[in-house]
Design brief:
Elements lengths: L1 E4 L3 E4 L5 E3 L12 E6 L6 E5 L6 E5 L14 H5 L9 E8 L8 E11 L4 E4 L11 E2 H7 L7 H16 L4
Antiparallel strand pairs: 1-2, 3-4, 4-5, 5-6, 6-7, 7-8, 8-9, 8-10
């Protein structure tokens, strides 16, 4: 399918990249249909609305820079998108890249939870005070001890969208 994107112009996208957000995202409730793309720069991803070309979000796995990250979402909320087990969930944070050169931040209070099997998602709202709306990604990465970053721990994170794309082939 052809999709007009904010970052890449008109592209060919695979049907398996489609994700439906029944409630939309906070502030973008009318945008319910998206595709998940690899961004030009890893470890980032691009969530592009297929409803409105100019609506797109940069995403990152919060576990990359906060291995202790955890979300508490009710079973009822997870059931809304068909998640019964944690194995079927992908978790992303929306990234803000300011034009003024300020710090690149991630929203850990409003993670996106995606059912990799059903291709459905929702934005959770967390009340845990440990997680910030604007967490400086670079500062967090700098605080992690290099020895604590193991390639095996990073690999599954990089493979998350790939697993999403190929979940229907298993």
């Amino acid at each position: 399918m052809k999709v007009a994107t904010k970052a890449y112009g008109l592209i060919e996208a695979d049907e398996r990249q489609k994700i439906f957000f029944p409630m939309g995202l906070i502030g973008f409730e009318k945008c319910k249909n998206y595709i998940l793309l690899d961004a030009e720069r890893q470890p980032f991803y691009w969530l592009q609305s297929t409803d409105f070309e100019h609506v797109a979000f940069v995403l990152v796995s919060p576990f990359l820079f906060r291995p202790d990250y955890e979300i508490n979402v009710s079973n009822d909320e997870l059931a809304e998108i068909g998640i019964c087990t944690p194995d079927s969930a992908l978790i992303f944070s929306i990234v803000t890249i300011p034009n003024d050169g300020g710090p690149i931040t991630a929203n850990l209070q409003g993670p996106l939870v995606i059912n990799r099997d059903a291709k459905a998602g929702k934005q959770a709202v967390l009340s845990d005070g440990r997680w910030k709306i604007k967490l400086d990604i670079i500062a967090e990465l700098a605080a992690i001890q290099p020895a604590a970053i193991q390639p095996a721990a990073i690999q599954p994170l990089a493979a998350q969208p790939q697993a999403l794309l190929h979940a229907g082939n298993a």
